[in-house]
Amino acid sequence: MHSHSLAPWQHDHVFLGRRHDAHERRTWAVVALATAMMIAEIVGGWLFGSMALLADGLHMTTHVAALSIAAVAYAVARAHVRNDRFSFGTGKLGELAGFASAIILAMVALLIGYESVTRLIHPLPIAFGEAIPIAVLGLGVNLVSAWLLHDHGHDEPEHDEQDHAHHTDHNFRAAYLHVLADAVTSLLAIGALAAGYQFGWVWLDPVVGLVGTAVIAAWAFSLIKSSGAVLLDAVPSREHAEAIRQRLELGEDRVADLHIWRLGPGHLGVMAVVVSDRPLPPDQYKSRLTGIAGLSHVNIEVHACHGDDHRRTA
C-alpha cells in the first residue's frame, strides 16, 4: 500500500455517555453546593461551639470527596477522549470513579453503624433543639442535590430494561446515591430526633442509625457489583451475546470465540472469531450485526476451515 488513505478503515474511540456533558455540569453544581454547606457547618460549629454542627460538617467532607471524584472523572475523560494511550477510549473512567465512590459509601455506612452501636451501649445526651434544625437543613440541601443528580432521561429514546442497563452511567449513579444516602439518613434522623424530643426516646436515634447503615450498605454493594463487573470486562448481557452468536452463525459459519464487553455508557465492544467452509469477507459478517443496539467497536476475524472439525457435536 503506497499513498492510499487509511481513513475508510479508521474510526475514533469516543465512548462517552450521551449525557456526559450534562452529567458533568450537574455534578460540579452539587460539589459546589455540598462544599458550601460543609464550610458553613464547620465554621458555624467552631464559632458557636456546636459539636452537632461541627460533626455534621466533618461528615459532609466524605460526600464532598466522593462527589469531587465523580466530577473530576468526567473532566479527565473528556480531556483525554482522543488520547491514543487509552486503547478503547476513556469511557471506563466513570466506572472507576463509581467503584471508588461506592467504597467510600460503604465506609460511611460502617462508620454510621459503629457510632450507632456505640451509642446504644453507651447512650449520650442529645441536644434535640439544636440537632433537629441541622437535620432539616441537611435534608433540604440533599433533596436539591438529589434533584440535580437525578438522571433526567425523559428527552432520550425509550429503552427496554436490558438496553437501559448498558446506558447506565455508574459514575453519575454513585454521586446520586451519595446525596440520596445523606437525604435518607437526614429524614430518619428528623423522625428519631422528633420522637426523642417528644417522648425522651434517646435510644431511637442509634436504632434509626442502624437502619440507615443497612440501606446505605445495600446501595454500596449494588454499585460495587455493577461498576466492578464493567471494570472486569464481564459480559454485559447474555441476551446480547446470544443474539450476536445467532446472527453470525448462519449456514456453515460457526463462532469459535466471542468477546463482548462495555466500553462506556451505551457503548459495547465485540470481538469474534468465525470459522467456515466458505468464509466471507469480515464486513459481511459485521453487516449481520446491524440493528443490535450499542455496538460501537466490532472486530471480526475469519478463518477457512474444511471438514467437520469446527461443527458442534450433538
Short description:
Helix content is 61%, strand content 10%. The protein is mainly alpha-helical.
Give the tags.
314 residues, mainly alpha, Alpha-Beta Plaits, three-stranded mixed beta sheet, 9 helices, 61% helix, elongated, disordered C terminus
What's the helix and strand layout?
Layout: H1 20-48, H2 51-79, H3 93-121, H4 128-149, H5 161-167, H6 170-199, H7 204-231, H8 238-248, E1 254-264, E2 267-276, H9 282-287, E3 295-304
Parallel strand pairs: 2-3
Antiparallel strand pairs: 1-2
Helix pairs in contact: 1-2, 1-4, 2-3, 2-6, 3-6, 3-7, 4-6, 6-7
Give the number of helices.
Answer: 9
Largest sheet: 3 strands, mixed
What's the CATH topology label of the largest domain? Alpha-lytic protease prodomain-like
Helix content: 55-70%
The value of Rg in angstroms is: 26 Å
Q: Would you report the number of β strands? A: 3
What overall form do the CA principal axes indicate?
A: elongated
User: Beta fraction of the residues?
Assistant: 5-15%
- Taken together, the total number of domains comes to 2
Low-confidence stretches: 153-164, 309-314
The topology string of helices and strands comes to HHHHHHHHEEHE
Output the CATH homologous superfamily of the largest domain: Cation efflux protein transmembrane domain
Mean pLDDT over the residues: 78
Q: Return the structural class.
A: mainly alpha
- Rounded to the nearest angstrom, the distance between the terminal CA atoms is 46 Å
Walk across the major sheet and give the strand order.
1-2-3
Q: What is the CATH level 1 assignment of the largest domain?
A: Mainly Alpha
CATH architectural group of the largest domain:
Up-down Bundle
